[in-house]
Design goal:
60% of the residues lie in helices and 12% in strands. The chain is an alpha/beta fold. Strands 6-9-10-3-11-12 form a 6-stranded mixed sheet. Strands 2-1-4-5 form a 4-stranded antiparallel sheet, with no helix packed on it. Strands 7-8 form a two-stranded antiparallel ribbon. The longest helix has 54 residues, at 191-244. The model is unreliable at 558-571 (pLDDT under 50).
Length: 571
């Protein structure tokens, strides 16, 4: 860039020498050829410098964006569920793509212009002042006015770019939600509604984009106005020096040279203006990127007291647990929970929707941390395990079953990437998935689309169970993970749990009472509290809430229930 700048500053001097020589008759053929040769050499060096500067500027900006993108992605992978809840999916996608692209463009421009434009501005000013100091006084008037205009434009542009990026967030969230759930949209014939929602978000983005662009559009004419005023003043006063003679007349070549420097100075200022405009947009994007990078991760290994501890048995104890999603909320999601789960037992958790069942089991692998109380696994506070060792000992099939793009085998290997094919098939057999997998043309090499949308809900659940079983966890948590499976298949899966996971602690969250009737212990929850603990028979006798759930789910059957006798007969 410095080579290119030096050439830009020297070229007008060579041109001025030729014009002056031609004007006063001192330009010989040899002299003109010598000057022309220097100009050609200068042009070649400028070209080499320009190409090199552009190449390394582009390379540096692309690598810089790559590093930021990697750092943000790593940061997001460390987020707890509480951290993730602060950012929408669409917003994180925008920050990883559009915002980083803005930073990349800015860095590319900065690296290409941070030497070239200031260097040309300074070099041209020095040459212009040395050539004719009296004429250079014009810059003392026009340049400060241009700088003030640049400052005012940038101050107006920055908040508009921040608003525009938020509108990009909203549009991305709308598109992501619609595309991910396109089957639901079509089944409810809501395409028109979703189209209107998209058009509204798109119109908001257009409006905010135009608002920001108006400032940038205004900047061009303002800078051009100052350029033309400066050139007009230079031509006016310069021509008087050329035509008027006097003690210190100005040669035509010097005026031409001075005008070229004027043009370089003003073009440098314009370039710097556009760079500052890009700075305002990059600052808006940079602020949003920093919000992710600076997010305080609330669940880490930082205060881990026993990082080498591993889950060996599967004993679980909840001691006086209280938890709130919104920490300033008066009403907790879980309140004063006390529960012991022996290793190797099967525990069912049942209760109304939103009573805190999923939240309770999410505390075991530290997807959330408690506000009060502690969760013990094998007698050790979960905060004292390393996150890796704790979560390696816990297998979890979440309420929302997610499969990733790739083959069925690839998805199952999430449980154990080193598993043999025999182990994969055994896990699929245990979850009753092997049969339908083999019915596919490519079997375990069948390609799944993103989210597993090309398999049914029940098939997806069984594959997710197989993935968790392949992990061979000491604690297996099934969060309503057989809701889309028929009762006969579910019974077979539960039977496999008894035989194949005899030493593992199994926690089954269910809406169907049939899913937990055979559990060693059933926990009844309501409104964030435990209202009953016992076996199926014990709860029927002692817990009205469990009794109501049982009776309501036996609709269509003749039910006779007393405190000592329960008989069910097909209606």
């Amino acid at each position: 860039m410095l080579i290119e700048v030096a050439g830009e500053v020297l070229m007008p001097m060579f041109l001025g020498m030729i014009i002056n020589g031609a004007t006063d008759g001192t330009l010989t053929s040899a002299k003109s050829l010598g000057i022309a040769g220097m100009m050609i050499l200068c042009a070649i060096l400028m070209m080499a410098g320009g190409v090199g500067g552009a190449y390394f500027g582009a390379k540096a900006s692309v690598n810089y964006a790559n590093d930021i993108r990697r750092d943000i992605y790593k940061q997001v992978q460390k987020f707890s569920f509480a951290n993730i809840d602060k950012f929408s999916t669409g917003s994180l996608v925008t920050r990883l793509t559009n915002d980083i692209q803005q930073i990349q463009n800015f860095v590319n421009m900065l690296l290409r212009m941070c030497l070239r434009s200031p260097g040309m501005l300074i070099g041209a000013l020095i040459m212009a002042i040395s050539l004719r100091p009296s004429l250079s006084v014009i810059f003392a008037v026009t340049v400060p006015m241009m700088i003030i205009s640049i400052f005012l434009v940038i101050r107006a542009a920055f908040p508009r770019f921040s608003i525009m990026q938020k509108k990009v967030d909203k549009l991305n969230s709308t598109v992501q939600e619609n595309v991910s759930n396109v089957r639901v949209v079509k089944s409810f014939v809501r395409a028109d509604y979703e189209t209107e929602k998209f058009e509204s978000a798109n119109a908001d983005l257009k409006k905010s984009g135009l608002s920001a662009m108006k400032i940038m559009i205004l900047n061009g004419p303002i800078m051009t106005l100052f350029m033309n005023i400066t050139i007009a003043l230079v031509v006016w006063f310069g021509s008087q020096l050329v035509m008027g003679g006097g003690e210190n007349p100005m040669d035509v070549g010097d005026l031409s040279q001075f005008l070229t420097y004027v043009n370089q100075i003003l073009m440098s200022l314009m370039t710097l203006t556009f760079m500052f405009m890009s700075t305002s947009r990059a600052m808006a994007s940079g602020k949003r990127i920093n919000e992710v990078l600076d997010e305080n991760i609330d669940i880490t290994d930082e205060n881990c007291a026993n990082p080498d501890a591993v889950v060996t048995r599967g004993d679980i104890e909840f001691k006086n647990i209280t938890f709130r999603y919104f920490k300033h909320s008066e009403d907790p999601v879980l309140e004063k929970i006390n529960l012991k789960i022996p290793a190797g037992s099967t525990v069912g958790i049942i209760g109304s929707t939103g009573c805190g069942k999923t939240t309770l089991v999410s505390l075991i692998p530290r997807l959330y941390d408690t506000d009060e109380g502690e969760v013990l696994v094998d007698g050790v506070n979960v905060r004292d395990y390393s996150l890796y060792n704790l979560r390696e000992g816990v297998g979890m099939v979440l309420q929302k079953n997610i499969l990733f793009s790739g083959t069925i085998e690839d998805n199952l290997r999430w449980g154990d990437e080193d598993a043999t094919m025999e182990e994969i098939i055994a896990a699929a057999n245990a979850s009753q998935a092997d049969g339908f997998v083999r019915s596919f043309k490519d079997g375990y090499l069948t390609e799944l689309e993103q989210g597993g949308v090309n398999v049914s809900g029940g098939q997806k659940q069984r594959l997710c169970i197989a993935r968790a079983l392949l992990k061979k966890p000491k604690i297996l948590i099934l969060d309503d993970s057989t809701s889309a499976v028929d009762t006969a298949t579910e019974a077979k899966i539960r039977e496999q749990f008894k035989t194949g996971l005899r030493d593992s602690t199994k926690i089954i969250i269910a809406q169907r009472i049939m899913s937990v009737m055979d559990a060693d212990m059933i926990v009844v929850m309501n409104d964030g509290k435990i209202t009953g603990i016992g076996t199926h028979e014990e709860l029927l006798e002692s817990n009205n809430e469990y009794n109501e759930i049982y009776v309501s789910q036996m609709e269509g059957k003749e039910v006779k229930a007393t405190s000592t006798d329960i008989s069910v007969k097909e209606g």
